[in-house]
C-alpha cells in the first residue's frame, strides 16, 4: 500500500505533531510491530502489554524510549531513525496516523486499539489541559509547523467536546477517518483490532489474543508478572517508565497521563442530546457496524 497524500486542508489543520513522510524512509524488519491508535485510546497500555510479552514480564523497562512515536516531529528523524536501527529486541513502534497515511508493510504486524470517542475526548481534554509550557513550546516551535498554534484550552470540557466534533478532531487530528481506515483493513492477516473496553473487562483474554497474533509464547511462570505490570494500579504507580518523556510535558508529571483509566465519565456531564450528537456523527462517518464496535467493543 502506498502513502496517500492528505488533502491540503487537513494538512494545514492537523500537521502540528507529525510528519507522515518519515515512513517513506523507514526500513521494516519482518517482525516489526506497529501500534496504531487515535490518541488517548490506550496506546501506552498497549505498549506496556507488548513490552511485557516481548520481555517476559520484566519490570522497570523504559517503554516509552523503547517504543517511539515514529511520525512525531520531535525528536527529529536524524535522532529517531538511528536509535531504532540499533535496537536488538523486537521493535514496537507507535503511530497515531490513519493507515492510508503510512507505508504499510505486509510483513509487519499492526495492532489497533479503539475507544469510544467520548471517552477519548474526556482523556484528551485532561491531556491537553494539564500540559505545561514545555509541551506547548515543543508543539508550536517545531520546525515545519503549519496551521494554527496549539494553545492551552480555556473553554469548558463540554465546549471542547463540541469543537472537537464540529471540526472533526480539532485542535488535534481528524477522528473518524483514523478509525475507519483501520476498521476497513481489520481482516488482513497482519492486522489485529482490539477495544479499550474489552481490554478493561478481560485483560488476560485480550493479552492472550495479542500474544497469539504476535506468535509470542507466554511462559506460565511469567504470567502473573505480566498481568500485574499491565494493571492500571501498577502503571499509575510506575507511570514515569511508560509515559512519553517520563511525563515532563504535564503539570502533574506522568501521573496526569495515566489518569483515571475508566470509561463513561462523560455520562454524568453530557446531556442526552449532546451525547446523541456524537452517536449520529459516528453512524454517519463510520457506518453501523464500525460505530457499534467503537461504542461497545
Ligand atoms: P484516561 O485519561 O481516561 O484516564 P493513550 O496512552 O492512548 O494516551 O491513552 C491514555 C489513556 O489510557 C488514559 O485514560 C490512561 O489512564 C489509560 N490507561 C493507561 N494505562 C491503563 C491501564 N493499565 N488500565 C486502564 N487504563 C489505562
Describe this structure in words.
This protein has one domain (8-296): P-loop containing nucleotide triphosphate hydrolases (Rossmann fold, 3-Layer(aba) Sandwich). The relative contact order is 0.17. The mean pLDDT is 92. The protein is built from 16 helices and 4 strands. It is globular and about 50 Å long. Helix 2 (43-54) runs antiparallel to helix 11 (223-230) and helix 5 (117-129) packs across helix 7 (157-166). The longest helix is centred in the last third of the chain and has 15 residues, at 272-286. By secondary structure, it is an alpha/beta fold. The structure holds adenosine-3'-5'-diphosphate.
Q: Can you give me a brief rundown of this structure?
A:
With 297 residues, the protein is α/β, with parallel strands linked by helices. Helix content is 46%, strand content 7%.
- Unreliable stretches, pLDDT < 50, 5 or more residues? none
Separation, N- and C-terminal Cα atoms = 27 Å
Q: What profile does the largest beta sheet have? A: 4 strands, parallel
Question: How many independent structural domains?
Answer: 1
Topology:
Elements: H1 8-14, E1 33-37, H2 43-54, H3 63-66, H4 77-86, E2 92-95, E3 109-114, H5 117-129, H6 133-140, H7 157-166, H8 176-183, E4 191-195, H9 196-201, H10 203-214, H11 223-230, H12 232-237, H13 239-242, H14 254-257, H15 272-286, H16 288-296
Helix pairs in contact: 2-11, 5-7, 15-16
Search tags:
binds adenosine-3'-5'-diphosphate; alpha/beta; Rossmann fold; 4-stranded parallel beta sheet; globular; 297 residues
Amino acid at each position: 500500500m502506498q502513502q496517500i497524500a492528505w488533502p491540503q486542508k487537513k494538512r494545514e489543520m492537523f500537521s502540528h505533531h507529525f510528519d507522515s513522510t518519515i515512513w517513506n524512509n523507514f526500513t521494516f524488519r519482518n517482525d516489526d510491530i506497529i501500534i496504531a491508535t487515535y490518541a488517548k485510546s490506550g496506546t501506552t497500555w498497549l505498549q506496556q502489554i507488548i513490552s511485557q510479552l516481548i520481555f517476559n514480564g520484566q519490570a522497570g523497562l523504559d517503554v516509552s524510549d523503547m517504543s517511539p512515536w515514529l511520525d512525531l516531529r520531535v525528536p527529529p528523524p536524524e535522532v529517531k531513525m538511528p536509535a531504532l536501527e540499533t535496537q536488538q529486541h523486537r521493535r514496537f513502534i507507535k503511530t497515531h496516523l490513519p493507515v492510508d497515511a503510512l507505508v504499510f508493510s505486509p510483513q509487519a504486524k499492526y495492532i489497533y486499539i479503539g475507544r469510544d470517542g467520548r471517552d477519548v475526548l474526556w482523556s484528551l481534554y485532561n491531556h491537553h489541559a494539564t500540559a505545561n509550557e514545555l509541551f506547548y513550546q515543543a508543539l508550536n516551535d517545531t520546525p515545519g509547523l503549519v496551521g494554527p498554534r496549539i494553545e492551552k484550552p480555556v473553554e469548558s470540557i463540554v465546549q471542547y467536546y463540541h469543537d472537537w466534533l464540529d471540526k472533526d478532531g480539532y485542535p488535534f487530528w481528524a477522528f473518524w477517518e483514523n478509525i475507519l481506515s483501520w476498521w476497513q483493513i481489520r481482516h488482513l492477516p497482519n492486522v489485529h483490532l482490539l477495544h479499550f473496553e474489552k481490554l478493561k473487562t478481560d485483560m488476560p483474554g485480550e493479552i492472550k489474543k495479542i500474544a497469539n497474533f504476535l506468535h509470542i509464547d507466554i511462559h506460565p511462570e511469567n504470567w502473573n508478572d505480566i498481568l500485574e505490570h499491565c494493571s492500571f494500579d501498577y502503571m499509575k504507580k510506575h507511570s514515569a517508565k511508560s509515559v512519553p518523556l517520563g511525563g515532563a510535558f504535564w503539570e502533574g508529571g506522568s501521573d496526569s497521563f495515566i489518569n483515571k483509566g475508566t470509561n463513561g465519565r462523560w455520562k454524568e456531564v453530557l446531556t442526552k442530546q449532546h451525547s446523541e450528537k456524537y452517536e449520529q456523527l459516528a453512524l454517519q462517518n463510520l457506518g453501523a457496524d464500525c460505530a457499534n464496535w467503537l461504542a461497545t467493543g
